[in-house]
Write a structure and sequence with these properties.
Chain lengths: 180, 359
């Protein structure tokens, strides 16, 4: 079984880092995983995205035409990636910056105020980790425990002081959708 | 990162750290997307290890600095991408003639000309047939995963020194930019003794020099013949490939580099649909596994070549098949990789056209 995730948002929202944490979590769960960023002109145009492909066997291609899950943190990314979610797939959106809408009837929608929640925690900088919390409660194959280990790994010793805030953000994100 | 521990790492960083593990003493390079991280990583690492690092003034300078360094017998490399690798072709011709263990990493982007930064596989011909003058051959290795970026970087240094021949590691933007779990292990090859030829200062021995040519017709002819004899030996010893489910296959999908991943996935989809597909993937693009392809073709298996260029490896596959089977090309010049769905539907069309009676 192979599933792919698109993560997208403004440059600076920590999209590539969120993807890196997600990919590390899959690795810690002993799955095969590939992370691939946009590295082109779009990086300079304000929005950024990366793709994470996870598989029980070898990961085939990245750069797929469609995705199983899209995690979008801004309106432009919603408008762009809602079109490529597979029929039956799910788009998970940051409703702080994305207007709630359902332009397609064949996919699932999850809207959660990730940005607002991050602000409530003290900084919008943790919107990306809040979004991973949301993702972990929506997608069965993502384990919150593995995400925690991954965050620890990615932050490393140098940024250890940021760990408690990020753990709180992850938990809060997961609780957010539990309530939706 | 010198252990069996798995780390999530970008292809470019993997190549850079593998070069460090392989004992690369000097790196010379000039930044270009999508491989800039190699130089970025080594700029710090080489300094930390008190090895050599120069951000050269141009690619031309960088490869000539590599020539200078390897002439003394040390391991050295440069890395670049497509349009800038073009600038290095003269030096590669010299290095091949000088029999110098130059290691060049080409993380391909689109061409021709300046092209653009998205991934492509358009430098197959340049790498395999050479963009420099004269009769020379280079060893070309094509990784398809981040793990192979590590393994083949090790192998590139080993082969370069074992045969005193330039080696190109031919990756692409997709591999350079992607992160995957991979482990470095230890550099698995023996060190090669270069004391018979390296320019290390003539104290206590007769002086020696490295020339790219013999200024004598007979000697020059002999020199070129020797280069090709050496490459025959390389072909015999080092030609490598991977094949999957070719035994009962009617049709064999062939690709190199990161496109290998897509043909493996397409093969599985085709098998589920009842089409007996197999996969063949050259690891060494030069020397090319001609003999094995010919064998498979003689068993009546047709070949479909999938690549991100206008059909460069396709010609080599056709040459190897030598009329014994059909060959078809599925391609796109650059940008978004051909999807598994694209490949599957193109193969189905090919099957309808050629095997209509048997389906």
């Amino acid at each position: 079984m192979e599933k792919n995730f698109i993560l997208a948002g403004f440059g600076g929202q920590g999209i590539l880092l969120a993807g890196t944490i997600l990919a590390n979590a899959f690795m810690l769960d002993e799955k095969n995983v590939t992370w691939y960023p946009c590295y082109g002109a779009e990086m300079r145009g304000g929005t950024v995205n990366c793709e994470v492909v996870v598989s029980d066997t070898e990961v085939s291609s990245v750069h797929k035409r469609e995705c199983d899950y899209a995690l979008v943190l801004n309106q432009q990314s919603f408008d762009r990636f809602v079109k490529i979610v597979k029929s039956g797939g799910t788009i998970i959106a940051n409703s702080t910056l994305v207007a709630e809408a359902n332009p397609r009837a064949d996919i699932e929608y999850v809207f959660a105020p990730m940005g607002k929640l991050a602000n409530d925690l003290g900084t919008s900088k943790v919107t990306n980790v809040v979004s991973l919390g949301v993702l972990s409660s929506v997608v069965d194959m993502i384990s919150k425990d593995a995400l925690k280990l991954a965050i620890e790994k990615v932050l490393g010793a140098k940024k250890k002081d940021l760990l408690p805030l990020n753990m709180k953000a992850l938990e809060a994100g997961a609780d957010l959708t539990a309530k939706v | 990162m010198n252990s069996s521990e798995k780390v999530l790492i970008k292809g470019n960083y993997a190549i850079a750290q593998a070069a460090v593990n392989a004992g690369c003493q000097c790196y010379f390079g000039y930044p270009i997307t999508p491989q800039t991280e190699i130089g970025e990583y080594l700029s710090g690492k080489m300094q930390e290890l008190k090895r050599g690092y120069v951000c050269a003034e141009s690619e031309l300078a960088a490869i000539n600095m590599v020539i200078g360094a390897v002439s003394t017998g040390v391991k050295a490399m440069t890395s670049s991408s497509s349009c800038a690798v073009s600038l290095m072709q003269e030096a590669l011709s010299y290095a091949a003639s000088d029999e110098l263990p130059v290691v060049l990493v080409n993380v391909m982007r689109a061409g021709p000309g300046l092209g653009y930064i998205y991934p492509a596989q358009g430098d197959y011909n340049q790498a395999v047939y050479g963009g420099g003058n004269g009769d020379y051959k280079i060893i070309v290795l094509a990784p398809s995963t981040v793990q192979e970026c590590i393994d083949y970087t090790y192998r590139a240094f080993y082969l370069a020194h074992k045969y005193r021949n330039p080696v190109i590691l031919l990756a692409d933007g997709l591999l350079g930019q992607m992160m995957e779990p991979a482990s470095f292990g230890e550099y698995p090859y023996p060190e090669i003794d270069n004391s018979s030829w390296a320019l290390t200062g003539a104290k206590n021995r007769a002086s020696r020099a490295i020339y790219s040519c013999a200024r004598d017709e007979k000697k020059q002819i002999e020199h070129i013949k020797n280069l090709f004899k050496k490459f025959d030996l390389i072909s015999q010893n080092e030609t490598s490939w991977e094949e999957f489910k070719t035994e009962d296959a009617d049709i064999i999908l062939t690709a190199f580099g990161s496109m290998t991943r897509n043909i493996k996935a397409a093969m599985n989809v085709l098998r589920e649909k009842g089409i007996k597909a197999g996969c063949f993937r050259p690891i060494t693009l030069s020397p090319f596994p001609n003999n094995r392809i010919e064998e498979l073709a003689k068993e009546g298996k047709d070949f479909i070549v999938v690549e991100m260029n206008m059909g460069q490896m396709f010609k080599d596959v056709k040459y190897a098949i030598n009329g014994a089977a059909k060959a078809e090309l599925i391609n796109r010049p650059c940008g978004e990789w051909l999807s598994v769905e694209d490949i599957v539907s193109s193969v189905e069309k090919f099957m309808e056209k050629n095997y209509a009676a048997s389906i």
